Amino acid sequence: MRSLFWFITLFALATVVAIAVSLNTGYVLIVMAPWRIEVSLAVFVIGMILGCLGLYALSRLVIMTLSLPSRVQAHRLRRTRSRARNALYQGLMSYFEGNFKKAERQSELALSTDESPLLCAIVAARSAHEQRHFEARDRYLARVENMGAEARLLLLTTRAELLLDERRYTEALDLLRESHRLAPKHVRAHQLLLKAQISTGAWKPALDTVNLLQHYDGIDALQAARVRRNAWQQRLRQNAHQADELRATWRSIPSDMRSDNELAQTAAGYFIDLGLHTDALALLERNLEKEWDPALVALYGECEGPSREQIEKAERWLQAHPGNAVLLLTLARLCMRQSLWGKAQSYLDASLFIESSREGQQLKAQLAEQMGPSRTPQRTAPDIDPEYGAA
Fold this sequence. Notes:
Strand content: under 5%
CATH class of the domain at 306-391: Mainly Alpha
CATH architecture of the domain at 306-391: Alpha Horseshoe
């Protein structure tokens, strides 16, 4: 359709020109002694137009000829950059596919042409690291160091992450502290910093880092809770040999964290080991009132306190949790401590009837030894109703 349009247009223009030439009777006289030239006006106009077009074409040809070397050089540069971009693309694809050898080769090829040198050097370094070529990795990272201050943060986080993978935690921690100074809000740097702190046992700074990460949405709530629990458990373990420091550490834990049963179990175990049974009883009773946990019930039986009161409290729990083998075993242990041999035997038999356990068998042997053969009751079934407590 477009060709037809141009054909009609040119045909109309040629018709107009032919009519104008036929109607024009003027002429042009050019005198250059001793010559005299006379041509029609139409021929002169057409000649001038053709001459201008020819002159323009000649000038364009000269310009193109003179600029040919620079145009060839620009074409070669574009082709080189295109190949470099393609090599970088292939390197990234290979890296994420796990083909690290190809990724390093392609990234190094792109790096040699200065196409996105920072990105190429980082991909090449990571690829070399995955192949355990540490000298090549350090050589690529050294090139990043020469790329100015803008690449400093990327260099620090990358080198720290690779050092963490090598378990060189102390060196990584130094780099991450510097990255924290450079970019206090950099989430990735804080994530790596938390990993380094956990690996080096820096539990108190790790708690601060978790809070910061949660503020910047760099860690989910469940993972943050696990890290906090682990950090406080480790801090309790570090102070598990001195009563005052253990108490101080437990009191420094936020109140909502002290309601965590796993953390309470850890603290109660350390309190019992140090003979701080009153502290252990207080935290166990408080947590059991909030949430039932058989592990805490088992520890409750190991606490040496006012056993009569413990037995009464445990029997009230039995009404709320009938048929709980761990609670029945705990009651048996508490009754043995008060020399209530009959009740101890009944609770123990009920516990073993519901669920046989190694602790129950060991306690049964201890009970038989303490009671003696003449006082050991001979029965084959418990006189404790596991569903309702004491018969």
